[in-house]
Amino acid sequence: MRYEAPESLEGAVALLAGATGEARVLAGGTDLLVQMRADVVDPALIVDIKKIPETRAVTEEQGGWRIGAAVTGAELREHARLKKAWPGVVEAANLIGSTQVQGRATLGGNLCNGSPAADSVPALIAAGAVATLAGPKGKRNLPVEDVMLGPRTLALTKGEIVVSFLLPPRPPRSSDAYLRFIPRTEMDIAVVGAGVSLSLDGGGTITAARVSLGAVAPRVLLVPEAAQAIIGSRLDKAAQDRLEAAARAACRPIDDKRGTTEFRIDVAAVLARRTALIALDRARAN
Amino acid sequence: MAKHHIEATVNGDAVEFLCETEETLLDVLRDTLNLTGSKEGCASGDCGACSVMLDGRLVCSCLVLGCEVGGRKIETIEGMAKGESLHPLQRRFLEAAALQCGICTPGFLVASKALLEKNPNPSEHEVRFWLAGNLCRCTGYDKIVTAVMDTAAAMRKG
Amino acid sequence: MTETNGHTQANGHSYVGTRQIRPDGVDKVTGRARFGADYNLPGQLIGRVLRSPHPHARIVSIDTSKAEALPGVKAVVTREDFGDQPSEFVPAGEMMMNYKDVVRNVMAREKALYEGHPVAAVAATSVAIARRALKLIDVKYEVLPHVIDVVEAMRPGAPLLHDDLFTVGAEPKPDKPSNIAKRVEIKQGDVAAGFKKADVVIEREFKTAPVHQGYIEPHAALATVSEDGATELWTTTQGHFIVRAHCARLLGLDIGKVRVTATEIGGGFGGKTVVYLEPLAIALSRKAKRPVKMVMSREEVFKASGPTSGAVVRVKLGATKAGKFTAAFAELKYQAGAFQGSPVQPGVMCAYAPYDIENVHVIGYDVVSNRPKVAAYRAPGAPISEYAVESVVDEIAKKLDIDPIDLRMQNAAREGTKAAYGPKFGPIGLEETLNAIRKTEHWNAPLRKWQGRGVASGFWFNIGGETCVSLTVNEDGTISLMAGTPDIGGLRAALTSVAADELGVPYDKIRPIIGDTGSLGFNFLTGGSRSAFSGSMALVEAAKQIKADLCARACKLWEAKPDQVEFSGGHVKPLGALADKVKPMSVADFAKVAGKTGGPIGGVGRINAQGAGPSFGTHLVDLEVDPETGRATILRYTVAQDAGRALSPAYVEGQFQGGAVQGIGWALNEEYVYGADGKLQNAGFLDYRMPVASDVPMIDAILVEVANPKHPYGVRGVGETPIVPPLGAIANAMEAATGIRFTELPMSPPKVLKALKEKGLNKA
Known about the structure:
The structure holds three protein chains of three kinds.
Chain A: E1 2-4, H1 9-17, E2 23-26, H2 32-37, E3 45-48, E4 58-61, E5 64-68, H3 73-77, H4 80-85, H5 87-93, H6 99-102, H7 107-112, H8 120-127, E6 130-135, E7 138-143, E8 148-150, E9 153-154, E10 161-167, E11 174-181, E12 192-200, E13 206-214, E14 221-222, H9 224-230, H10 237-250, H11 261-285
Parallel strand pairs in A: 1-3, 2-3
Antiparallel strand pairs in A: 4-5, 5-10, 6-7, 6-10, 8-9, 11-12, 12-13, 13-14
Chain B: E1 4-10, E2 13-19, H1 25-32, E3 51-54, E4 57-60, E5 73-75, H2 88-95, H3 105-118, H4 124-130, H5 142-157
Parallel strand pairs in B: 1-5
Antiparallel strand pairs in B: 1-2, 3-4, 3-5
Chain C: E1 2-4, H1 25-30, E2 45-51, E3 57-63, H2 65-69, E4 73-77, E5 89-92, E6 95-98, H3 99-106, E7 111-112, E8 118-124, H4 127-136, E9 138-143, H5 150-154, E10 180-188, H6 191-196, E11 200-208, E12 220-225, E13 231-235, H7 240-251, E14 258-262, H8 278-288, E15 292-295, H9 298-304, E16 311-319, E17 325-337, H10 344-350, E18 360-368, H11 382-400, H12 404-411, H13 430-438, H14 441-444, E19 451-460, E20 465-473, E21 479-483, H15 491-503, E22 510-514, H16 531-558, E23 565-568, E24 571-574, E25 585-586, H17 587-592, E26 601-609, E27 615-626, E28 631-642, H18 649-668, E29 699-704, H19 726-738, H20 749-758
Helix pairs in contact in C: 7-8, 10-11, 11-19, 15-16, 18-19
């Protein structure tokens, strides 16, 4: 098993594009190492991207934020201004695993592990994040909701890696939130995850919204109908009911050891509502 | 494939070791460097018994590859006491009977020290959530949480 | 946060009852203490086990030739390397086991009986080579239909695990084998008549799932066998003398040639009272002529080490309107895993033991199924049966509109009550624990909507057993204390306190160790809540010997007669006129002149400890349910339990708190999840959900002390009772919070939400 730690994007792309056997990107290792130990994957090549500066930076860009794919959840939590602008994204990244896991886990890894239950992905999708990819044919941008196509299936082609995420500029009176349902209080994989980002006008009416649901379908869903249900409202009871109905309708979950189909649908509706209410409170305070 | 030759700092000492790509930092600490204070409870990052500090960041050493730590600073339970002086957390755990079998104790101590360095005045809620990644099956957590909060108070008094 | 009741404060120089620092503590907080996987020997090989991927299959053939040929592989063992064992039942902790089954559980013979069942093992020069070697072993299986549910396994026509298993205790004796190994029964009075006298009768069926002990340290063993057959073994175990006996038996060795060291143990809770890796490591070492180290992965721990039974329990309880229980019936079906030996017998015994009921009838079935062989888990069998009983007791309290503590008090077993399973209770503390709970601020604290409060009682009978403890006075007056029961939770603190008080030597001048099997006489394992109880009893004997010896030496030195000297307060004291002539001598004083007065000073207590007293406990829990998701949060928890006399109160509280939290996990989230294919789906800490620190509140511990008259300090074992009441208390709290009686554990959110929805209650 080869281990390489290139210091440039070109170096990483060349290694991955030229790999003959199974190759894996290493960021935080919180999924890869577990899968290796469980004999689920046996890569011939591991490419550690943490020495590539673009993957490790958090910078302001055109009024928005660019977050490197290999920035850890713990580092995001310590970034006061990012946290203020995108509390939902930051809290989602900091729900992954434990304090120890957050010391290593990254947004890039969380997305590219390809699990529809990933905690940070609904928050990124709700935020309207766009992933920048680098590959043998150069760079391209892809909305996060188009990166994960299904369980362990990504839209990345051979040799492509996720470099960073761009979060759009924030109008005033905007905020986001992420909630998940787990049976314990920590440490579980999300049974349902909900990310909501919204903006208000001066009167408190929702003018823009994005709603994303995780762990209720083969991929993390962007649910435009759920957003439509609340745009133009102040999230009164009728809007909440419409939101819940839209969330229910979008779910196509499975029965597994973490939850039944029925349970996931019921809880998706409840969480969509609760998450939207938190985002609303935060937006009002902004 | 030849082994990796790694130089790093462990508990303030320069160390040098060889490791295979698939060996984790935990494997290296225990089997190559003979620092068996960090424990393997699950090898999947779910129990925290292998907790160490990596460049000042609390991590599970079972989720770090040995070959990643070249040039980096690692702190384990073995480095917590200074000579004959136990760290206040170590002392308080003993006084408060915050351990029964003791297998989780190194992980809890490393994690608690990291907490107090970040937040010298944590609430009970904050202590419990920070330590949620450290499993204990013996104590039910009560005396551990009390010991951490008591130590925080004592350390704030100076 | 604790309240104490009784004489637990030190007075003068007494250490017993104080919050001492455990002597083994510094090593544990510095990472120096060595647990099972921390031992290494030069030249050691790494051992790994090949396990059946099928829940039920005939093993047609095993071809190990390719593995043996792999460079770096030094030994391979299979069923060929273990002689068959005739059927013989022996005690295994508080359960029984049969050597014929043990040899088959350690290494499959005719069949693989669960996914994870060992079929071969290798020893190689590295982990990587060992793993590769396992892949080269070619096993041909004839896959058979499997059965994993206890009720399914009992049906005629169910896939049969053992064709020589005929139900013991069934009338008439069956002529066909089945999966029902045993039927047990206890009977007292006439339940039919008793139910006729009842004004209210409640009958319910309950279901529980298997749960694992969940110790954080996986099994580990390191063995080295010399060319003359002398064997040394380091293993993480609750009973190294038992390990020695099993390994000697399975491998045909003289017991005296096997020396077992119990390493520090990272949790056991009953799950480390049996052997898994040890015989394999020894067999491999014997073949390879090098030390062999074996450690289980977490997945192996879940797939191949014993959880406790899942069960179906039917309870029928009758009471008069005034609240007197008139008749109690229960039928328990416990699954044992691949080989017989579930804890159904103690489950039967404990079901109604907290109550004084004239008419009792309990039946139990021990049923095999294609799952790992069940092992003891803290008060084995009792949490399951008492969950069912305490739930029905709660229902009766509600139906009769009687306070649940009053109802229990009215029917409580007391001194003199004859338990349905046989013995008459001596002094016991059930009522004291009920009163202690009633007096707490917790009992009366206000509750809001969707919050509920539940109470339940429980007990464990506790055991004594063979124990050997040695005390040696060193030349400088310090004491070496050697016990033979592994310390799983603070035993050394308790024993050191007793030794300090017995001999009048300061606590920090006593060094306790757990001796290996070559250094002490036989010790039964740490289990049955016996180690502090029996260890301190044996220690008192050893101290008596020393005291008598020192008095004799004093008589020689002082030319006195035996009635002129006595030992008290750590000294041999001259009495009467002699006191004017000579000064008292301390243990340290004698140590200085030991050689001149006859040689080394020491004592060995060798006993079969009798008189273990049961420990009763009552638990009180408040919880809150989120009606929109079914998630329950434990808000507040109080334990009151009778310790007899707490030698080490901080560690006794620790037992209460730890057992309560295991119970919380069992009640709310823990369970083995199997697919229809008979394979375990949650073999890791991610999806086998044990409580984490943020899941639970502080656990208030109230120490009740009703002295056990049969112990020199009044001690009762405390380790197991704490896990018995939580299931019932939490189920009762759930009922109070939701109005729904949950008869299936765990009460996980999907189940709770579904039940709330069915009643239209799933709204905030």
